[in-house]
Structure formats: C-alpha cells, structure tokens
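Two quick folds needed for the group meeting slides. Do the first one here.
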Amino acid sequence: METIPRITVESPVLSIGSGPSDYEALGSYVRGLRRPRGLHLTLLHLGVLADFARDVSEWTKGVTSVAAAARGASAWVQGLPVLDGFSGSAERLITLGGGSVAGLDVTVPEHVHNYQVSLVQALYELLDGLLVDSVDDFILSSRALGFRSPHWTPHVAVGSPKTRGGGVWEIEPLAIRFGESRIRNRQFLPGAGQ
C-alpha cells in the first residue's frame, strides 16, 4: 500500500554528538534506531494536503472548495520564511505519539521557539483566509493537522521505546546541529518548482 506523503516544515539534523557512536548509544533505549540521515525536528505539521483541503471544505460546508483550499495551502506553505540553521542540545529521551515513539527532548534557542510560534500564527491567518470560523476548534479537530496538544515539544524522533507505557530517560548530553528549515515533500505540492 502506497503512503501519501505528509507536508511538514522541518529542520534537518546535520549532526548529533561528537560522532556516530554518540547516536548509536541511544540503541540501548530504543528499538529500530532510525538512520541518522533522515532525522529532523518538525516545526509545523500540515499533513496530507488533500486531507487538509477536505477538512477545510467540510468545515466551511463547501464555501471554500477542496481545490481552493489545496491551492491556498500550497502557495502559503511555499511562501513561508526559512529558518537558518541552529544548534540545540538534548539530555533526555521522551515518549511521544501515545508512547509509540521515542524522541530526543531538544532544547532550542529562543528564536527557534519564536519562529515556530510565527508558523502557527501564519496558519491561523491562512485558515482565516480560507473562511474557516472557530479556527482553534478546527485546528484541534482537523484529522490532517493532527494537533494533539496546544503546545509544541521540540523533539527529534529516533525510534520506538524498548519499554512500553511511556517514560523519560536521562542520557549523556548531546549537542545537535540543525540545517535551515525546509518543506518535507515539497515536490508533491501543486505548483512546486514553477
């Protein structure tokens, strides 16, 4: 079964710790440790574009069509400002996604928090422009957006926890370098690269 790509704004991980062994040491806490090359910090999750557009159209009772919502969201996400690369750190692993994901709990600079807040504010403006009323309710109920919590937890998902039921594990402090932000699966957006 083919998975439909999700659209996110993320900062890719360039390095963790002082070498590969620092990252591999997380394997004592995590099953199926992800390859370092694909690691990232999600700044905003938009979800599958078609699902997001359908959510908007259903919420507005068709006043905003699926096509108009998809075009608007595509242009919006491609017009977002880019966050420069930055450094962060992690001193613990946490569980996310109901306990199925283990992630590095990342401490990021204040300007990264501010950037993420600006993305959420911009999302509110997009939804307002798409004629969505009760934006807070829409964000929390949209299946595509998948917001489960009102606050952002900066993290890098690294695998599945070895123990079920959630938890927090203290680890040796790790420095993490991130590259500039990008749109994951940008090539699947209408009008991308034009």
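Then this one, please, same format:
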Amino acid sequence: MQRNPFELAEKLREKFGTDLQDVSLAFGEVTAVVPLSSYREVMLALRDDPEWRFEELIDLCGVDYAGYGNSGMEVPDKRFAVVVHLLSLTFNGRLRVRVFAEDEKMPEVPSVSDIWPSANWFEREAFDLYGILFSGHPDLRRILTDYGFVGHPFRKDFPVQGYVEMRYDEKEKRVVYQPVTIEPREITPRVVRDPDGGDGR
C-alpha cells in the first residue's frame, strides 16, 4: 500500500520543523526544501529512521534558476540547487528533497554518495554540467564532457554553440580544438502554395 503524500508532508513538518525551509505537495508528490546546514543530517535520518526508510536514491540532478520566474512563478533567491529523488521500498513512498548552494560563483553542496552509493555518478554529472561541487565526494571529475572541456554546458549563461569545437586533424593525426566556426544564419522555411489556393499537394 502506498504511503499517503498528505500524511508524509505532515510527518516531515512535525519531525524536522525548522530543519526544513519548506514542505509542499503538488501532483501527488512531496517536496522538502532543506537548508544547506542540515542537509546531511536530514538525509541520514531519511535513510535510517524507521519512520522514513528511504532506502534508495533514484535520481539527483542540478538546477540553474537563473532567469527563472519569467512565467510569473516565484523566483528563488539563490541560483543553484541540487534536487534528490528518494524512494522508500518499505512504505512505497517517494520524496523530493531540494537544497540550495549558498555561493553562486562556486556552488557547493555536501556529497551524499556515502549515504546512497547511487549518488556517486549523479553528483559527478551535476558537477560536470552545472559546476556544482560536492564536498566529500570520493572522485569528483567530469563524466560526460571531455577532460579539457571549458565551462559547464547546462548553465543558462553557457553559449548555445559553446566556446570551442573539436575535430580530427589529418595532418597532425590527432584530435584538435579550435574556436567555434559556426556562422549564424537565418533559416526560413520555404512554403510552396498552389495558385488555386491549395497547399500544392
């Protein structure tokens, strides 16, 4: 039997109190916003406390809130966050936990890879794509981009065409990096119309 999300939200508020900045319920899913200072403590309790038993971390990702709120939604006061999705097999329940990094220039959040080993590669991915550092991570290095890659491609201020491109050079017999050579161009679709008012078919 699945745990009632309303009951889960209420129990989280009762148990953690000021250790949570917010608990919300939307589309049948509970989201808890945890302060950076109590992130590790709350995560350990969510795994180990018999009341919660979130045995599995099924996803962890970075979020860049720069420019967020253009659609009228509330804008967070911090730019980078880490969002973790937890699963309790014991109680058949899910929980989303969000923690914000304090420093926009060098965002850092404690690693939970020692709590849930599945977080290891997810944290490496968030580091690679968003530049979020995970203190205490055993092997924090790029996982998707090349070792010499400059920047973090999922940040909203990263240019769409990137900074450099790579290609194989026949003369040098190796891969070389060079400035991006894409020329901006406008692509206008060509529409063929039938003079009798049809669409040409």
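Slide caption for protein two: Helices lie at 5-16, 39-48, 119-130.
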